Amino acid sequence: DGAVSAEKTVQVKRDHGIPHFGGEGDGIRVENNTWKQFLNKITFGTYIRTKDVTIKASDAVSGVAEYDYYVDIVTDKENYRILSKETLDDYAQKGKFTSSADGKFSLSDKENQVVYAYAVDHAGNRSDYICTEGLVLDTKAPVMMITQPTLEDGTLKDTEATVTVELEEDAAIL
Fold first, then answer.
1. Is the Cβ–Cβ distance between 66 and 120 less than 8 Å?
2. DSSP 126
3. Residue 70, CB half-sphere, CA atoms under 13 Å: how many?
4. Can you give the pTM of this predicted structure?
5. Across-strand partners of 118?
6. d(CA 36, CA 111)
7. Which of 34, 94, 148, 170 could link 27 by a cystine bridge, Cβ 3.0 to 4.6 Å?
């Protein structure tokens, strides 16, 4: 009908930045451990009791829409090699990453794992990958065997005794 409306000014924000893991509380968090970057070397020296993982990133313009993660189950930790960016891109394209709106998930019951993650903001911008150290899930208490001292083997005397303690597995200080 040819009617012209009044002029209106609209402010539009354009989000070109990617989410990042540099802010307070950002990164992949498992118990009291936090990782904020992609590691160059993985060792399996981080023993954990819980399977709970939280991923958090920052994005000042549009906010974080989702977190995507891949958990690599490691069977040979002595020869483990960090997954390359190309391999992770391929896994993401093939749908091997899992999405989480709140960044929370639980690890499996497997003993040795490495978590890889990235964040996506509401504009569709994707962060760089970050990963954890090799995580060793250790939820079982070691079985302790105590050998009772006896007179026959010389481990029991009038004023002293020698007690032998054996652990079924290597003990880890947690």
1. yes
2. B
3. 21
4. 0.77
5. 68
6. 23
7. 34
